[in-house]
Design brief:
Blueprint: H1 9-42, H2 47-73, H3 76-89, E1 96-100, H4 107-114, H5 127-135, E2 140-148, E3 152-159, E4 162-168, E5 171-176, E6 181-184, H6 187-190, E7 195-197, H7 205-213, E8 222-228, E9 232-237, E10 242-244, H8 249-266, E11 275-277, E12 285-287, H9 291-302
Parallel strand pairs: 1-3, 4-7, 7-8, 10-11
Antiparallel strand pairs: 2-3, 4-5, 5-6, 8-9, 9-10, 11-12
Helix pairs in contact: 2-3
Length: 303
């Protein structure tokens, strides 16, 4: 007669090992949860905002995948309509516009160009086309249009900076440093701004800026610049005195710097001279009102 004895040692070891693994897993989960809680506390988002972000990411991935598959199948137009419908049903459509960077121009003109996208599904908004429309506005130097999911279009505007006033027949126009016309301006509002005049002067505004920058001490004292004969400048100062400069970018700049030095030593501006003529190389002619008549009178008395 034989007796079989069952050994339970191995089963005990297995049970102990299983319990150990379970304990390790619980500790790992607890540690992971603690770390996740710490990360969540640091992030500047609420739980609701995170849910919306995850939803946007998931929807965006689904849209991209659907578009890719549809493109491979050769039906992008149909896919675009389907995707737009899905996005709209999910709440991803234009409900508002946020405009940034507008300080001087009429903000309503920007809204007029963008509000045509109102209620349109986000995937159907052509950001490039909207930007091109905005660049047609005289005040807009550059623009960027972006989506802020789920419902907002964000428009960042770079405005042109008013630089001078262009004198045109029967009206005054505000222009930037490149001579771009911004908007009409009244005579009263033009006071204190540099007045630019003369045929073709609008195309020379950038060059005028470089010329005046060569003599920074005189620049704030120039009230008017007249482009004469499509070749040179006459500058009028706040003292109503006029400086006739020679033609040529380098020559006129050198003459203006020389005049600045002379004024610094002899205080020409604010004196009796009405006109300074520097068109002749290395010479300056000065005209004093009434001086010619005085000389004639003196000559007559002598005779």
């Amino acid at each position: 007669m034989s007796t079989t004895i069952k050994r339970k040692g191995k089963g005990v070891r297995r049970s102990a090992a299983a319990k150990g693994r379970a304990s390790t897993a619980r500790k790992a989960r607890a540690k992971t949860g603690s770390a996740l809680d710490s990360v969540m506390a640091i992030l500047p988002f609420t739980e609701e905002q995170l849910h919306r972000i995850f939803l946007a990411v998931i929807l965006g991935g689904a849209v991209a995948l659907a578009w890719f598959v549809a493109s491979l199948a050769g039906v992008p137009a149909m896919a675009e309509r389907q995707i737009a419908g899905l996005a709209s049903d999910a709440g991803f459509e234009v409900r508002g516009v946020q405009i940034r960077g507008v300080e001087r121009m009429n903000e309503l003109k920007v809204y007029e160009r963008v509000l045509g996208q109102q209620d349109r599904a986000m995937p159907l908004v052509d950001l490039g086309a909207v930007r091109e429309e905005l660049l047609e506005l005289s005040w807009v130097k550059d623009a960027r249009v972006s989506r802020q999911l789920p419902t907002t279009l964000v428009v960042d505007i770079v405005e042109r900076v008013p630089h001078a006033v262009l004198k045109k027949p029967k009206r005054l126009v505000l222009i930037d440093a490149e001579g771009i016309e911004l908007e009409p301006i009244s005579k009263d509002n033009a006071k204190g701004r540099l007045l630019v005049s003369g045929p073709g002067a609008q195309n020379q505004v950038a060059a005028l800026g470089k010329l005046l920058d060569s003599a920074p001490a005189l620049k704030p004292q120039v009230s008017e610049a007249e482009w004469v004969g499509n070749r040179r400048w006459n500058l009028t100062f706040t003292t109503d005195q006029v400086l006739a400069l020679p033609q040529g970018e380098s020559t006129s700049s050198t003459a203006l710097v020389s005049f600045a030095r002379l004024d610094g030593v002899n205080r020409l501006l604010g004196g009796k001279v009405a006109t300074f003529d520097m068109r002749a190389p290395e010479r300056i002619y000065m005209r004093i009102p009434g001086r010619a008549q005085e000389m004639l009178d003196a000559k007559g008395s002598a005779n």
